Amino acid sequence: MWFFVILLVVVVGLALWAVSLYNGFIRSRNLIQESWRQIDVELNRRYDLIPNLVETVRAYAAHERNTLENITKLRNQAASLAQTSQGGASAERAEVEEQLSGAVRQLMVSVEAYPDLKSNINFLELQKELTATEDRIAAGRRFYNANVRNYNTQVESFPSVLIANTFHFEKATYFEVNDQAVRQAPKVTFGEISDRPEATSEPTTAQLTAASDAALPNPQAYDQSQFGQPGQFGTPAQPAEQPIFTQPPSQPPTLNPPPAQ
Protein backbone atom coordinates (compact mmCIF):
# COMPACT_ATOMS: atom_id res chain seq x y z
CA MET A 1 0.00 0.00 0.00
CA TRP A 2 2.70 2.46 0.99
CA PHE A 3 4.64 1.59 -2.13
CA PHE A 4 1.79 2.70 -4.39
CA VAL A 5 1.34 5.90 -2.39
CA ILE A 6 5.03 6.77 -2.72
CA LEU A 7 4.95 5.92 -6.42
CA LEU A 8 1.89 8.11 -6.92
CA VAL A 9 3.56 11.00 -5.12
CA VAL A 10 6.67 10.63 -7.29
CA VAL A 11 4.62 10.54 -10.49
CA VAL A 12 2.59 13.59 -9.46
CA GLY A 13 5.79 15.45 -8.54
CA LEU A 14 7.39 14.66 -11.91
CA ALA A 15 4.24 15.77 -13.70
CA LEU A 16 4.16 19.07 -11.82
CA TRP A 17 7.86 19.57 -12.52
CA ALA A 18 7.33 18.93 -16.26
CA VAL A 19 4.37 21.32 -16.34
CA SER A 20 6.44 23.96 -14.58
CA LEU A 21 9.25 23.62 -17.12
CA TYR A 22 6.80 23.72 -20.01
CA ASN A 23 5.16 26.87 -18.68
CA GLY A 24 8.61 28.41 -18.24
CA PHE A 25 9.37 27.81 -21.92
CA ILE A 26 6.06 29.41 -22.89
CA ARG A 27 6.73 32.49 -20.76
CA SER A 28 10.24 32.90 -22.16
CA ARG A 29 9.04 32.52 -25.74
CA ASN A 30 6.27 35.05 -25.26
CA LEU A 31 8.72 37.48 -23.68
CA ILE A 32 11.00 37.13 -26.70
CA GLN A 33 8.13 37.78 -29.08
CA GLU A 34 7.02 40.83 -27.12
CA SER A 35 10.51 42.32 -26.99
CA TRP A 36 10.93 41.72 -30.73
CA ARG A 37 7.65 43.53 -31.52
CA GLN A 38 9.07 46.63 -29.84
CA ILE A 39 12.13 46.47 -32.09
CA ASP A 40 10.02 45.82 -35.18
CA VAL A 41 7.90 48.91 -34.47
CA GLU A 42 11.02 51.10 -34.30
CA LEU A 43 12.46 49.52 -37.45
CA ASN A 44 9.26 50.25 -39.38
CA ARG A 45 9.34 53.79 -38.06
CA ARG A 46 12.85 54.15 -39.41
CA TYR A 47 11.68 52.84 -42.79
CA ASP A 48 9.19 55.71 -42.88
CA LEU A 49 11.68 58.39 -41.84
CA ILE A 50 14.52 57.49 -44.22
CA PRO A 51 12.77 58.46 -47.51
CA ASN A 52 11.98 61.93 -46.14
CA LEU A 53 15.57 62.26 -44.94
CA VAL A 54 16.94 61.25 -48.32
CA GLU A 55 14.78 63.77 -50.17
CA THR A 56 15.70 66.56 -47.78
CA VAL A 57 19.43 65.90 -48.10
CA ARG A 58 19.19 65.50 -51.87
CA ALA A 59 17.86 69.06 -52.20
CA TYR A 60 20.91 70.53 -50.45
CA ALA A 61 23.72 68.02 -50.99
CA ALA A 62 23.78 66.77 -54.54
CA HIS A 63 27.35 65.50 -54.11
CA GLU A 64 26.17 62.83 -51.63
CA ARG A 65 24.48 60.87 -54.39
CA ASN A 66 26.28 57.59 -53.71
CA THR A 67 25.50 57.72 -50.01
CA LEU A 68 21.82 58.45 -50.63
CA GLU A 69 21.51 55.65 -53.16
CA ASN A 70 23.15 53.22 -50.74
CA ILE A 71 20.77 54.20 -47.94
CA THR A 72 17.76 53.81 -50.22
CA LYS A 73 18.96 50.40 -51.38
CA LEU A 74 19.54 49.14 -47.84
CA ARG A 75 16.18 50.50 -46.69
CA ASN A 76 14.31 48.68 -49.47
CA GLN A 77 16.26 45.49 -48.82
CA ALA A 78 15.51 45.59 -45.09
CA ALA A 79 11.81 46.26 -45.71
CA SER A 80 11.68 43.34 -48.16
CA LEU A 81 13.30 41.00 -45.61
CA ALA A 82 10.82 42.15 -42.98
CA GLN A 83 7.93 41.15 -45.23
CA THR A 84 9.55 37.85 -46.17
CA SER A 85 10.18 36.84 -42.56
CA GLN A 86 6.72 38.13 -41.53
CA GLY A 87 8.24 40.59 -39.08
CA GLY A 88 10.44 38.00 -37.41
CA ALA A 89 14.11 38.12 -36.52
CA SER A 90 16.75 36.54 -38.73
CA ALA A 91 20.51 36.75 -39.07
CA GLU A 92 20.26 38.17 -42.60
CA ARG A 93 17.87 40.89 -41.55
CA ALA A 94 20.01 41.79 -38.55
CA GLU A 95 23.03 42.25 -40.82
CA VAL A 96 21.13 44.48 -43.26
CA GLU A 97 19.70 46.56 -40.43
CA GLU A 98 23.19 47.06 -39.01
CA GLN A 99 24.47 48.20 -42.41
CA LEU A 100 21.53 50.59 -42.68
CA SER A 101 22.32 52.08 -39.27
CA GLY A 102 25.94 52.60 -40.32
CA ALA A 103 24.90 54.26 -43.58
CA VAL A 104 22.59 56.67 -41.73
CA ARG A 105 25.38 57.56 -39.29
CA GLN A 106 27.75 58.17 -42.20
CA LEU A 107 25.21 60.48 -43.81
CA MET A 108 24.82 62.46 -40.59
CA VAL A 109 28.57 63.00 -40.53
CA SER A 110 28.67 64.00 -44.21
CA VAL A 111 26.08 66.76 -43.83
CA GLU A 112 28.43 68.67 -41.52
CA ALA A 113 29.91 70.19 -44.70
CA TYR A 114 26.56 71.79 -45.65
CA PRO A 115 25.65 74.68 -43.33
CA ASP A 116 22.38 75.40 -45.16
CA LEU A 117 21.22 71.82 -44.66
CA LYS A 118 22.19 71.82 -41.00
CA SER A 119 19.99 74.88 -40.43
CA ASN A 120 17.00 73.43 -42.26
CA ILE A 121 14.07 72.88 -39.92
CA ASN A 122 12.84 69.73 -41.64
CA PHE A 123 16.29 68.16 -41.54
CA LEU A 124 16.76 69.01 -37.87
CA GLU A 125 13.43 67.42 -37.02
CA LEU A 126 14.22 64.30 -39.03
CA GLN A 127 17.65 64.08 -37.44
CA LYS A 128 16.14 64.31 -33.97
CA GLU A 129 13.54 61.62 -34.69
CA LEU A 130 16.10 59.30 -36.28
CA THR A 131 18.47 59.68 -33.32
CA ALA A 132 15.69 58.84 -30.88
CA THR A 133 14.65 55.88 -33.01
CA GLU A 134 18.20 54.53 -33.16
CA ASP A 135 18.48 54.79 -29.37
CA ARG A 136 15.25 52.86 -28.88
CA ILE A 137 16.36 50.22 -31.38
CA ALA A 138 19.65 49.76 -29.50
CA ALA A 139 17.87 49.50 -26.13
CA GLY A 140 15.29 47.07 -27.54
CA ARG A 141 18.05 44.96 -29.09
CA ARG A 142 19.83 44.58 -25.76
CA PHE A 143 16.58 43.58 -24.04
CA TYR A 144 15.68 41.15 -26.80
CA ASN A 145 19.11 39.48 -26.84
CA ALA A 146 19.02 39.08 -23.05
CA ASN A 147 15.68 37.26 -23.29
CA VAL A 148 17.00 35.09 -26.12
CA ARG A 149 20.03 34.17 -24.05
CA ASN A 150 17.87 33.05 -21.12
CA TYR A 151 15.54 31.09 -23.37
CA ASN A 152 18.38 29.34 -25.22
CA THR A 153 19.98 28.46 -21.91
CA GLN A 154 16.78 26.71 -20.87
CA VAL A 155 16.60 24.87 -24.20
CA GLU A 156 20.15 23.53 -23.90
CA SER A 157 20.29 22.88 -20.14
CA PHE A 158 19.56 19.57 -18.48
CA PRO A 159 16.94 18.42 -17.53
CA SER A 160 14.88 21.14 -19.25
CA VAL A 161 16.32 19.97 -22.57
CA LEU A 162 14.12 16.87 -22.24
CA ILE A 163 10.99 19.01 -22.23
CA ALA A 164 12.37 21.15 -25.05
CA ASN A 165 13.01 18.15 -27.27
CA THR A 166 9.67 16.59 -26.42
CA PHE A 167 7.62 19.68 -27.30
CA HIS A 168 9.97 20.94 -30.05
CA PHE A 169 11.12 24.19 -28.48
CA GLU A 170 13.79 25.48 -30.88
CA LYS A 171 16.55 27.95 -30.14
CA ALA A 172 15.76 31.61 -30.85
CA THR A 173 17.84 33.85 -33.12
CA TYR A 174 19.87 36.75 -31.77
CA PHE A 175 19.44 40.15 -33.35
CA GLU A 176 23.13 40.89 -33.84
CA VAL A 177 25.83 41.25 -36.47
CA ASN A 178 27.33 37.98 -37.74
CA ASP A 179 29.72 39.49 -40.32
CA GLN A 180 33.29 38.84 -39.17
CA ALA A 181 34.57 41.82 -41.18
CA VAL A 182 32.38 44.13 -39.10
CA ARG A 183 33.42 42.50 -35.82
CA GLN A 184 37.14 42.45 -36.63
CA ALA A 185 39.10 44.92 -34.58
CA PRO A 186 41.34 47.34 -36.48
CA LYS A 187 45.04 46.51 -36.54
CA VAL A 188 47.11 49.22 -34.89
CA THR A 189 50.82 49.46 -35.77
CA PHE A 190 53.46 51.92 -34.68
CA GLY A 191 55.89 51.92 -37.58
CA GLU A 192 59.04 49.84 -37.19
CA ILE A 193 58.34 49.02 -33.56
CA SER A 194 55.92 46.29 -34.57
CA ASP A 195 58.61 44.65 -36.71
CA ARG A 196 61.16 44.37 -33.91
CA PRO A 197 61.53 40.96 -32.23
CA GLU A 198 60.44 40.73 -28.66
CA ALA A 199 63.09 40.31 -26.00
CA THR A 200 63.27 36.79 -24.68
CA SER A 201 64.73 37.67 -21.27
CA GLU A 202 66.08 40.57 -19.25
CA PRO A 203 69.86 41.28 -19.55
CA THR A 204 71.97 40.10 -16.66
CA THR A 205 74.29 42.22 -14.52
CA ALA A 206 77.37 40.70 -16.15
CA GLN A 207 76.07 41.52 -19.62
CA LEU A 208 75.34 45.11 -18.61
CA THR A 209 78.84 45.46 -17.10
CA ALA A 210 80.51 44.02 -20.21
CA ALA A 211 78.52 46.32 -22.47
CA SER A 212 79.43 49.34 -20.33
CA ASP A 213 83.15 48.47 -20.36
CA ALA A 214 83.10 47.93 -24.11
CA ALA A 215 81.52 51.34 -24.64
CA LEU A 216 84.24 53.20 -22.62
CA PRO A 217 87.45 54.19 -24.46
CA ASN A 218 90.80 52.64 -23.46
CA PRO A 219 93.61 55.26 -23.35
CA GLN A 220 96.31 52.57 -23.77
CA ALA A 221 94.79 51.35 -27.02
CA TYR A 222 95.55 54.53 -28.93
CA ASP A 223 98.86 55.33 -30.66
CA GLN A 224 99.92 58.63 -29.20
CA SER A 225 102.33 59.21 -32.09
CA GLN A 226 99.32 60.01 -34.27
CA PHE A 227 98.57 63.12 -32.27
CA GLY A 228 100.45 66.33 -32.00
CA GLN A 229 101.36 68.46 -29.00
CA PRO A 230 98.61 70.10 -27.03
CA GLY A 231 97.81 73.64 -28.04
CA GLN A 232 97.69 76.74 -25.92
CA PHE A 233 95.14 77.46 -23.19
CA GLY A 234 94.40 73.79 -22.66
CA THR A 235 93.20 73.06 -26.20
CA PRO A 236 93.01 69.36 -27.08
CA ALA A 237 95.79 67.61 -28.94
CA GLN A 238 95.61 67.82 -32.72
CA PRO A 239 96.35 65.03 -35.20
CA ALA A 240 99.77 64.75 -36.81
CA GLU A 241 98.35 65.76 -40.20
CA GLN A 242 97.52 69.18 -38.70
CA PRO A 243 100.59 70.21 -36.59
CA ILE A 244 100.19 73.24 -34.46
CA PHE A 245 103.82 74.44 -34.72
CA THR A 246 106.06 74.55 -37.78
CA GLN A 247 109.85 74.45 -37.53
CA PRO A 248 111.86 77.42 -38.86
CA PRO A 249 113.68 77.03 -42.14
CA SER A 250 117.08 77.26 -40.41
CA GLN A 251 116.44 73.95 -38.65
CA PRO A 252 115.56 71.32 -41.27
CA PRO A 253 113.83 68.16 -40.02
CA THR A 254 115.94 65.09 -39.37
CA LEU A 255 115.79 62.83 -42.39
CA ASN A 256 117.34 59.73 -40.89
CA PRO A 257 115.34 58.16 -38.02
CA PRO A 258 117.21 57.12 -34.83
CA PRO A 259 118.28 53.49 -34.63
CA ALA A 260 115.84 51.11 -33.04
CA GLN A 261 116.50 50.28 -29.39
TrEMBL record:
It comes from the Bacteria. It is found in: Membrane. InterPro entries: LemA-like_dom_sf, MamQ_LemA. GO terms for cellular component: membrane. Residues 212-261 are annotated as: Disordered. Pfam families: LemA. It is a single-pass membrane protein. Keywords: Membrane, Transmembrane, Transmembrane helix. Residues 249-261 have a biased composition (Pro residues). Belongs to the LemA family. This is LemA protein. The lineage of its organism: Bacteria, Bacillati, Actinomycetota, Actinomycetes, Propionibacteriales.
